Recover the amino acids of this structure.
C-alpha cells in the first residue's frame, strides 16, 4: 500500500508529468476517484463525497473532478 505522501512524490516523476490529460473527461476522473479514493485524501470529507456517490449524489465528486482533474489523473498514475 502506498501512503499519501509517497503518492504525492510519485505524482511528480517525469513519466507521470508527461501524461497528456486532454482525453480524460470529468466522468473519467470521477471513475479514477472511485477506483483510487486515496487520491482525494487531502480533500475535506473525502469519504463523504464517495458515500454520497453511492447514494446517487455525484455533486461533490463532480466538483472535485472539475477543480482538480489533471492533478487527480497524475496522482492516480503515481499509484499505478
Amino acid at each position: 500500500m502506498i501512503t499519501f505522501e509517497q503518492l504525492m512524490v510519485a505524482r511528480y516523476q517525469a513519466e507521470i508529468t508527461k501524461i497528456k490529460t486532454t482525453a480524460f473527461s470529468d466522468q473519467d476522473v470521477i471513475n479514477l476517484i472511485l477506483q483510487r479514493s486515496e487520491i482525494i485524501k487531502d480533500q475535506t470529507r473525502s469519504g463523504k463525497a464517495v458515500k454520497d456517490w453511492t447514494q446517487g449524489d455525484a455533486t461533490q465528486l463532480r466538483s472535485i473532478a472539475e477543480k482538480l482533474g489533471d492533478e487527480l489523473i497524475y496522482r492516480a498514475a503515481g499509484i499505478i
Observations:
- The chain has a mean pLDDT of 96.
- The helical segments are 4-10, 14-17, 26-35, 46-54, 59-79.
- The two ends are 11 Å apart (CA to CA).
- DSSP finds five helices and no strands in the chain.
